Amino acid sequence: MNTPLNTAGVVSNSKTDPNKILPMRYMWARNHYKDGVANNWTPEEVSMQKDVEQWKDPKFLSEDERRLIMWNMGFFATAESLTANNLVLAVYRHVTNPECRQYLLRQAYEEAVHTDTFIYCCDSLGINPDELYNMYLTIPSISEKDEFVINLTKSIFDPFFEVTDLVTLRKFLHDLIGYYVIMEGIFFYAGFAMMLALKRQNKMIGIGEQFEYIMRDESIHLAFGCDLINTIKAENPAIWTKEFQDEITELIKKAVILEGAYAVDACPRGLLGINTQQFVHYVQYIADRRLERIDLPKVYNKENPFPWMSQATDLSKEKNFFESRVTEYRTAGSLEW
Ligand code: FE
Ligand code: MN
């Protein structure tokens, strides 16, 4: 029962020299780092001119559309810093492998860019920051998601938490699934779908484009997180018991309920051509994809109600969709000659 911890792996590796990145062992981490750098962007590059006109015009957007925009900005504005804090204060300490740490530093920077996006949106649209940054406390469907993630990831946030055996490693894996699969992989996606649906109707296209960039970054964060999770499982097969697998599936099912409730609350009457239930189905469809990515059986078997979202989120090489913009950032070092 007391199988010892694999101390030669990606987590809490006592033999790793964190300052010696070469030779590399986990090329997936290196590749995600390169993809992140190649996708560089900043919010100021996106013009908010049209958004400002539309936002200030009392007749252009419906009350429901304004609600949806506020709900999503309110959720993301705090979720981005929550993620950044988790990464830097909790995940980084235990992931001792140098190429994974290099990726975590890149991801932390991207979270700072995402935080910057909401500063920029707040400034350009003239949104009251107190209102926006308090929504995670005042709006129940937002606070329930945040609380769920915070409770889910309590153990590794404890400064005295150490990964020393299979029990603590399982806790660490559980919390990683909370950060990456649930927060970044499920709780962001109803919002992405809503903001992109709005953009498809030529409404708030500046914010919509920023959400597209954020979503592209998040799809790499999620891919890194799942590779990390699957590597820990492969290095320590004894932690991936049937009981633990069932526990994770149950957590994901709870997360889907919360995300569905959030979607209904943010967009109670649907959007032109989209009913609210389709957002819920989209979350279920996304959750199945996440389950499969960490080798768990699907639960929902839903069709993707928004095939247009898969262009933006689900491509394994997200670059295709954004080719025109990404190329501008591509430096000589990352070009293939
Ligand atoms: Fe982010
Ligand atoms: Mn992220």
Helix/strand layout:
Blueprint lengths: L26 H12 L10 H8 L6 H32 L3 H28 L3 H10 L1 H13 L1 H4 L8 H22 L1 H12 L4 H31 L6 H25 L9 H18 L13 H6 L10 H7 L8
Helix pairs in contact: 1-4, 1-10, 3-4, 3-5, 3-8, 3-9, 4-10, 5-6, 6-11, 8-10, 8-11, 9-10, 9-12, 11-12
Low-confidence runs (pLDDT<50, min 5 residues)? Answer: 314-337
The DSSP helix count reads: 14
Say what oligomer this is: single chain
Radius of gyration: 20 Å
Give the class from helix and strand content and strand pairing: mainly alpha
Q: Termini, distance in Å?
A: 53 Å
The residue-averaged pLDDT reads 90
Q: What is the CATH C level class, in words?
A: Mainly Alpha
Query: What coarse outline follows from CA principal-axis ratios?
Result: globular
- The proportion of residues forming helix, as a percent range, comes to 55-70%
Q: Would you count the extended β strands for me?
A: 0
**What's the SSE pattern?**
HHHHHHHHHHHHHH
Taking the sheet with the most strands, its summary is: none
Structural domain count: 1
Q: Which small-molecule species are bound to the chains here?
A: fe (iii) ion, manganese (II) ion
CATH architecture: Orthogonal Bundle
CATH topological fold name: Ribonucleotide Reductase, subunit A
Residues in β-strands, percent: under 5%
Structure description:
The chain is an all-alpha fold and 337 residues long. The chain has a single domain (27-334), classed as Ribonucleotide Reductase, subunit A (Orthogonal Bundle). It is 68% helix and 0% strand. The protein has helices at 27-38, 49-56, 63-94, 98-125, 129-138, 140-152, 154-157, 166-187, 189-200, 205-235, 242-266, 276-293, 307-312, 323-329. The radius of gyration is 20 Å and the shape is globular. Bound molecules: fe (iii) ion (FE) and manganese (II) ion. Residues 83, 111, 184, 218, 221 line the site of manganese (II) ion.
